[in-house]
Specification:
The structure is a single chain. The protein is of the alpha/beta class and 157 residues long. The protein has helices at 11-20, 28-34, 42-50, 67-72, 86-95, 135-142, and strands at 57-61, 78-83, 101-105, 118-124, 143-152. Strands 3-2-1-4-5 form a 5-stranded parallel beta sheet. α6 links the parallel β4 (118-124) and β5 (143-152).
């Protein structure tokens, strides 16, 4: 997706990415049915690797229908899950009833959060939709000293 220097994309590529990242919301039910889930151990693995304990502030970027959110919920984290799709967030809210989980309909680029407010920023199969000029710099700004950015999916290939 990047063209020229790292983190820079053409206007055409940016417009295409912005259009494509909104398509999932129109097919939330189909997305839920066809998307493979996550193993139960994933939350424990990430928490152990990042040294997280109960009360850790976690931001999930691109929660979709809540498949990863469900694995993270119940671990005692103060979990914030965001997605740009209202139908995706509605599905995630149905799936995850943990009182420590909150949901926002917003893009990562537009997320209003204080600097150094998260111990972990995690994203699976969604981080590649973020503006490359914002993705890593905002993650670094939002993470507390010693915080972790955990990514899986196409952006890690």
């Amino acid at each position: 997706m990047a063209t020229g220097t790292e983190g820079t994309e053409s206007e055409r590529d940016r417009n295409k990415r912005h259009y494509q990242r909104t398509l999932f919301d129109g097919i939330a039910a189909r997305y839920e049915e066809s998307r493979p889930g996550y193993p139960p151990e994933i939350a424990e693995f990430v928490a152990t690797t990042a040294g997280l304990g109960p009360g850790a502030a976690v931001l999930e970027v691109g929660c979709g229908t809540g498949q990863l959110t469900e694995r993270l919920a119940g671990s005692g984290f103060r979990l914030t899950a965001i997605d740009i799709g209202p139908a995706m967030v509605a599905a995630a809210r149905q799936r995850v009833t943990d009182a420590e989980a909150s949901f926002e309909i917003t893009s990562f680029e537009d997320l209003a959060a204080a600097d150094a407010s998260f111990d972990l920023v995690i994203s699976s199969a969604a981080f590649h939709w973020i503006d490359p000029e914002v993705a890593f710099s905002k993650s670094a700004r939002l993470l507390r000293p010693g915080g972790w950015l955990a990514l899986s999916g196409p952006q890690c290939a």
